[in-house]
Amino acid sequence: MEKTGKRIENKTSRTAEFTCMIRAASFYEKETHYKSNDYIAPKLLPKFMVPIAKTGALKYLFKNRLNFPKDVPKGMYEYVIARTKFIDSVFQKAISNEFDQILIFGAGFDSRGIRFADLNKKTKIFELDAPLTQEAKINQFKKRGIELNPNVIFISIDFNKESLEDKLIEFGFQKNKRSLFILEGLTMYLDHEAIESTFHIIDQFAGENSEVVFDYVYSSVLRGENLYYGESEVLKQVNDANEPWSFGIEKGKLDSFLKDKNLKLICSLNSDDLEDKFFKNEQGTIIAKVNGTHCITYALK
């Protein structure tokens, strides 16, 4: 699924690190619209950055885009916060409804299996990722004394050499069980062949009333048409990180994409929807703009 020469093959994912930093900054926010409950994210930061996050300096840098991290795209801080909150809600609903299993593709520094462990009575959580990123995360857990939940199963995979289906079966992910599949910040990094094989695996394993949540970018973004808020900056960031985007969905073509994958739409959220849902105050005023390049899709099998 990963192309030869990409950063993720020989280093931890920079975009995974970027997402973790945003979640850590968000945890220390005082403003409720910005604040998330990812109390694990600060523990995954390098130690020298924790005081920066606690004082609010990190969130200030993200919000005001003062060249740290380099070239922070407009609205990406808000987008990652909104995406985290929305997928948190989908995850919580799945474990509350006692789904059999949850599979997180490209889990990065995700911590939902730990954060929501007290709510989880029976659901097995499978985290799938490239070896170096997953190893870095597990090592950081151990260094910070974060107890690994026995319900969380880590699957390390070299997508260039190993079969995804075989790997899932080897680690106990079962077919025809009610499952939630999470592809957070992933689809845009896959090529067309990898998208087809990934959604084929979902179709093959998913039991009745399974669910899928994923985000994607518009195809026009890949063409550099610069139609959306923060578009040119976010493209520069992923290219500079040697993690370029490869896949998008044409605006207005989501329904046909889902139909081809045997999925039915539950809801779709673009940047306007995310602003309305997560950044509207009591007076009905939108207090922040979300990067316009992404959409989140929640679908039923």
Automatic annotation (TrEMBL):
Task: Please state what the protein is called.
Answer: Methyltransferase
**Natural source organism:** Methanobacterium bryantii
Q: Which NCBIfam families does the entry mention?
A: mthyl_TIGR00027
Similarity remark: Belongs to the UPF0677 family.
Tell me the GO BP annotations in alphabetical order: methylation
Family matches, as Pfam families: LCM
Q: Which UniProt keywords apply?
A: Methyltransferase, Transferase
GO MF, any single term: methyltransferase activity
Domain of life of the organism encoding this protein: Archaea
